[in-house]
Amino acid sequence: MSPALKVTLTLAGILLTGLPLLWLTATPAQQQVTETMPEEAAPRRLYATLHFSGQPEYIILRHNGMLIAELRTPQYAPQDITLELPSGKAIDLEAEASWADNIAGNNALTITLEPEGQQACSVTRWGDSLLHDIFTFTW
Fold first, then answer.
1. What is the largest CA-CA distance in the chain?
2. pLDDT of residue 37
3. In the prediction, which pLDDT does 36 show?
4. Are both 94 and 124 inside the same structural domain?
5. pLDDT-flagged residues of the chain (< 50)
6. CB-based contacts of 14: which residues, under 8 Å, 6+ apart?
7. Residues 31 and 49 in one domain
8. Where in the sequence is the domain holding 122, given as residue range(s)?
9. Interacting residues of 129 by C-beta distance below 8 A, sequence separation 6+
10. What integer pLDDT is reported at residue 30 of this predicted model?
11. Contacts by residues 136-139 (CB-CB < 8 Å, ≥ 24 positions apart)
12. CA distance 52 to 33
């Protein structure tokens, strides 16, 4: 066998082995873009349940300064709300609630958040006739 034929067969063997490996290890550009997107950018559905003492005049919920829920004179507890919020391991909700001045004693507001596929998390805050506080939920 001549040296030129040996070199040709060797190069052909390397190419035949290398092309499938190149095809298996290369990833399309579109797939690389989707993998680098942050996980927290996608919104997720949360189910919120509001429990309160007495009958508040209003309850307002905000997330990052944006109004996400407003209840005026809710008649009964609990109140169920479905929210769409960015996903993450923690969520801060700013809650404001007001009760009539003639309601004596402390008033409570409990917010329970339940993301789809995760356990529910509840936070309770107490106030007099006005409650304005941050409710932090972590999973």
1. 107
2. 44
3. 47
4. yes
5. 32-39
6. none
7. no
8. 39-138
9. 98, 99, 100, 101, 103, 107
10. 54
11. 136/90, 136/91, 136/92, 137/90, 137/91, 137/92, 137/93, 137/111, 137/113, 138/89, 138/90, 139/89, 139/90, 139/115
12. 45
DSSP 98-113: E--TTS-S-EEEEEEE
Q: Report the pLDDT value the prediction gives residue 104, as an integer from 0 to 100.
A: 64
The pLDDT of residue 33 is 47
Q: Same domain, yes or no, for 32 and 49?
A: no
99: number of Cβ within 10 Å: 22
Residue 129: the pLDDT is: 87
Alpha-carbon gap, residue 25 to 27, rounded angstroms: 6
Q: How many residues does the chain have?
A: 139
Distances in whole angstroms, Cα of residue 105 to Cα of each of 25, 99, 108, 135: 68, 11, 10, 21
Residue carrying the six token digits 């190069």: 11
Query: Among candidates 108, 90, 45, 98, which has minimal Cα distance to 70?
Result: 98
Query: Do 60 and 121 sit in the same domain of this protein?
Result: yes
pLDDT in tens, 12-23: 888 788 777 777
What is the structure's pLDDT at 112?
Answer: 94
